[in-house]
Design a protein that fits this description.
Elements lengths: L12 H10 L4 E5 L5 E5 H17 L7 E5 L4 H12 L3 E4 L6 H11 L3 E4 L4 H7 L8 E4 L14 E3 H6 L15 E6 L9 E5 H11 L2 H4 L6 E4 L11 H7 L3 E4 L6 H10 L4 E4 L1 H14 L8 E5 L5 H11 L2 E7 L6 E5 L3 H4 L3 H8 L4 E2 L4 E5 L14 E6 L21 E9 L5 E6 L4 E3 L2 E3 L1 H8 L5 E11 L3 E10 L7 H9 L10 E4 L13 H8 L7
Parallel strand pairs: 1-11, 3-4, 3-5, 4-8, 5-6, 6-7, 10-11, 10-12, 12-13, 13-14, 24-25
Antiparallel strand pairs: 1-2, 8-9, 14-15, 15-16, 17-18, 18-19, 19-20, 21-22, 23-24
This protein binds adenosine monophosphate (AMP).
């Protein structure tokens, strides 16, 4: 029997329309390429998204067209999120830190018709345009009089493009499950793969993310969106912030410690979203200059493992709660979050920090489980660990243009992460399946070893990789960046680790580097180090 309620097919443009009606004056603040601060609000973002949608239609673009952005976090990028998806086209956010070959592959694979391009990335597109087979138009995110001399064919400034758009444009009624956005995975192994989000999956993800038990966001928050808008749709923030009338502040190009600190203080930021490497820079800046984070209450940190030392420093030095989130491009991205509960607040601090270092519990809608190599479910006892599998309404079914599903017969998607789940439902990432170190038949978690190492007062960052070893199959090698950039006694690191990890986990070799290789979304690029040092133990 069918229910008697109204049927509803979401269009994410409904989110910005809602913000326009209920929170029109809430600010959207962007640091522009010029360094100036630009201020607008949800009311204006809504009107300009309508103009963009209308201008796209007038120029012949239609439902299902894939239109890309190569853009920073800014109000124009936010308008594109709504204008493009709202008129039924697909908002494909390109990662501007990608290797040019990968960018070409992705643009051609997606068959992008337009690229909305931020001024600093025009030279990159100029160098690639001959290899781009589908792109018809480049819309440069600037004023008419800022449009640069360029060899790009068919360019127009964003402001000129939307000039003739109709501000009373009405959004189309879309099909159930219509596509709204496209992101590609980082592709450290093999070609990048596309994940095509739908209006329904995006709206459901945003509504759940907005639940207090998920991210603990609040109407009164001002959020600093450091996570790039190309990284899994900035974790959903561009949708759930307007849904909840929350002010968004965007850092533009300036993501160094001092710039972030100034923006947090000047804009009264209460919550900030980003990957751990960003917060290392911010904390380092505060430490060196004896500064406190005054307005900030919480940081939402995800995308890579979070060290306990970071949780402790935020709490003890700045009274800031670090909320960890875990997810992936294939999951829109949120899977688990770790908000502070009353039980946690009653724990001894160090015990609480250890719990906060776990990836957290699934948000409503997401199911998680761990499996052994044969696919059997493992106990949720906090000890057993295995392949983490997930399913839910904002998790992919198949990759874009693939000819087969990416899930098993029961709908479970294998994340490629190795995890444990405890009796209270807290999931902890042990490692990426490809990074776990297999030494003499036993497993060493590279993440645990890294996290233990960065607790050393003289170490800023650490990376552990397993390298082939003649006797043990693989043994760990530790790469460190010290606070000063100078080498320190290796023995002091081993002594420090001695009571924190099992003896046989201790790295066989420690190498000092000036910096570690990071990928486009702040993840350590272990394969770079593995490639360079691969034969180190074999040749000894
Ligand atoms: P991406 O699709 O680029 O967002 O990458 C997703 C992957 O990032 C996950 O499968 C994890 O390996 C890693 N990741 C995300 N969040 C966390 C976290 N909180 N702790 C450890 N690893 C994480």
């Amino acid at each position: 029997m069918k229910g008697d309620m109204q049927s509803w097919t979401p269009n994410i443009a409904g989110i910005i329309e809602h913000a326009n009606k209920v929170f029109p004056d809430v600010e959207v603040v962007s640091k522009l390429v010029s360094g100036e601060t630009h201020r607008t609000n949800y009311g204006e973002v809504c009107i300009r998204s309508r103009k963009l949608a209308s201008a796209l239609e007038k120029n012949g673009y239609k439902e299902g067209d894939i239109l890309a952005t190569l853009a920073l976090n800014s109000y124009r990028h936010l308008e594109i999120y709504y204008g493009v998806s709202g008129m039924g086209a697909v908002n494909h956010t390109l990662n501007f830190r990608l290797h040019p070959d990968q960018a070409v592959y992705i643009i051609n694979h997606a068959e992008d018709k337009i690229i909305f391009c931020e001024l600093p990335f025009v030279p990159l597109l100029e160098s690639l345009q001959d290899q781009l087979h589908s792109v018809e138009k480049f819309i440069i995110l600037c004023e008419k009089d800022e449009l640069p001399e360029s060899s790009l064919k068919n360019t127009i400034s964003y402001e000129e493009f939307i000039e003739d758009g109709d501000e009373d444009y009405s959004w189309p009624q879309l099909q159930d499950d219509a596509a709204c956005g496209l992101c590609y995975t980082s592709g450290t192994t093999g070609d990048p793969k596309g994940v095509l989000y739908s209006h329904k999956s995006t709206v459901l993800h945003s509504m759940t993310a907005a639940m207090p038990v998920a991210l603990d966001i609040n109407r009164k928050d001002s959020i600093l969106m450091v996570v790039p808008m190309f990284h899994v749709m900035a974790w959903g923030l561009p949708y759930f912030a307007p849904m909840n009338g929350i002010k968004i502040v965007m850092p533009g190009m300036q993501m160094d410690g001092p710039s972030l600190y100034n923006q947090i203080e000047n804009e009264n930021i209460t919550m900030a979203f980003g990957v751990p490497t960003i917060w290392m820079q911010l904390l380092g800046h505060c430490r060196e200059n004896n500064l406190k984070l005054n307005s900030l209450n919480k940081t939402l940190v995800g995308g890579a493992a979070v060290p306990v030392s970071m949780i402790r420093e935020f709490d003890e030095e700045h009274d800031v709660t670090l909320v960890q989130g875990w997810g992936m491009t294939e999951m829109s991205p949120l899977g688990t979050t770790n908000i502070i509960t009353d039980e946690m607040l009653s724990m001894p601090k160090e015990e609480r920090y250890l719990l906060q270092a776990k990836a957290g519990r699934p948000i409503y809608g997401v199911e998680i489980d761990i499996r052994d190599e044969e696919g059997n479910s493992l106990p949720h006892d906090g000890e057993a660990y295995g392949n983490l599998v997930v399913r839910g309404p904002w998790i992919l079914q198949r990759y874009f243009k693939a000819d087969h599903d990416a899930v098993d017969e029961n709908g479970w998607f294998d994340t490629g992460d190795i995890s444990s789940i405890d009796k209270d439902g807290y999931m902890a990432i042990v490692d990426r399946a490809k990074d776990v170190i297999k030494s003499g038949g036993e497993w060493i978690s590279s993440i645990d070893l890294e996290n233990a190492t960065v607790g050393h007062p003289e170490i800023a960052e650490a990376c552990v990789v397993g390298l082939p070893h003649p006797k043990w199959d693989e043994r760990p090698m530790l790469f460190v960046v010290t606070n000063t950039g100078n080498d320190i006694e290796k023995q002091s690191i081993l002594d420090f680790l001695n009571d924190k990890v099992a003896k046989w986990w201790l790295p066989d070799e420690i190498i000092f580097l000036k910096e570690l290789p990071h990928g486009a979304t702040g993840k350590l690029q272990k394969f770079e180090l593995r490639k360079e040092y691969n034969n180190h133990y074999m040749e000894k």
